[in-house]
Amino acid sequence: MNNEIFVIGAWTDTKLKEQNLISVIKDIKSKNYPVCLVAHCSISKEIQELVDYYIYEKENVLSLNWKLTFWRMRNGIREEKPSLVDYHGVACLMNIRNSIDLLLAKEKFQYIHYREADLEYDFDSYMKSWNERSEISPVMFVHYQDNRYRTDLFSCEVDWYNLVIPRVQSWQEYTDKSITNNLILEYWFSDIVDKITKQEHITFIKDFQVGNKWTQAHYVEWDDDSRKILSFNEAPSILLQSGNRKDSFVKALTELYKNKKDNPKIVEIGVSRYESNLIDGDSTSVFAWYISNFSGSYHGCDISDVNLKMAQIALKKYIGTEKDNSINVALTCKDGLEFLKSYNKPIDLLYLDTIDWEKGSYESGLYHLVIISCN
User: Fold this and answer.
1) Domain edge (last residue) among 219, 248, 278
2) What is the DSSP string of 123-166?
3) Which of 1, 19, 48, 311 could bridge 271 with an S-S bond, Cβ 3.0-4.6 Å?
4) 305-316 vs 283-294: helix axis angle to the nearest 10?
């Protein structure tokens, strides 16, 4: 233990984070480990006096025109958005490198245990793994994802880090030294480690829980969405029974839900001809159900008055009820090609189902190619 030191990276931009940092330092010191604090922000005198070494790097190097992409699952849909702030991978590496340079000069410590101040993990379990590692292992990592290594919690020999991890002081240097062009720090770091260090020399903890007191949600502004969760459990039974059509409907409506939140506009050329007919597909009912539940507008067109009357029956099941969230519904009796030529509103989902396909005939396919090209 006498030759080990904890290096803590911190960004104390709030009082709450300051108090957390104080707690982390005191906890580590109570276990008789020295502490080196590294930061790109100024640290109060009170906190400086708690640690053995404090390094303040005023230059906070961030990325150039490159940002992380964050994602979340909402209502079963994966949403992605770029971060609002530049990436701090180089700044993190500079913090660690500053501590390595200092400790090499001091010649007092053989090992560092690096951690970010806002992490939550089982300290005793982690140190147990470290103490039980193989004698030939100079480094221990925790699984990040894709068999990559966390860079906010790891332990290693000071000399190992100095020899393996390159010194980078600019975003250009960082990108130049990337092996696989994956600029996420954990991938950048892991690629370099794996290239130089044999796997038998690495202690790798795969099943170890690490949390973070503050999520990175403030790096992204997610759009509020008050719609109900997308689910097809209450969709018209005809959808769930329609074989291959079910997959197509579900995929199309899922994409519509994901990409068009406010008043999606559905246009159907060739409406339902029979009520709840499995072979026909009853698409009008499916669209009526969707806009009634998740908002939107529908405009159906058919050359047959009889078919439009059946479409009205399908629409009335969902439109005009107490739970109806639709915005606008219309039906037009007209040739589909002529209708689309004069339709000058945006369309979010266009459903073409006009001339029936007959085996050996190309008439249906050719007509639908013509009709889709006119809008």
Assistant:
1) 219
2) HHHHHHHHHTS-TT--EEEEE-STT-EEEEEEEEEHHHHHHHSP
3) 311
4) 40
- ∠ CA(93), CA(94), CA(100), 5° rounding? 90
Domain presence at residue 322: yes
Residue 230 included in any domain: no
> What is the reported pLDDT for 358?
60
* Same domain flag for 154 and 250: no
- This model's pTM is above 0.85: no
pLDDT in tens, 94-111: 999 999 999 999 999 999
Give the count of domains, the chain: 2
Token pair in block for residue 182:
């994956």
CATH classification at residue 169? 3.90.550.10
User: Cβ(188)–Cβ(78) under 8 Å?
Assistant: no
- Cα atoms in the 13 Å half-sphere on the side-chain side of 19: 4
* Domain enclosing residue 313, as ranges: 237-373
Structural domain includes residue 224: no
* Inter-CA distances, 181 with 145, 178, 185, 189, 335, Å: 17, 5, 11, 12, 53
Q: What is the DSSP letter of 357?
A: P
pLDDT digits (tens, 9 = 90+) for 13-33: 889 999 999 999 999 999 999
Query: Which residues of the chain carry a pLDDT beneath 70?
Result: 1, 75-76, 215-218, 241-244, 275-281, 355-365, 367-368, 370-371, 374-375
Q: What's the CA gap between 88 and 39, in Å, rounded?
A: 12
- How many residues are given for the chain? 375
Are 164 and 254 in the same domain?
no
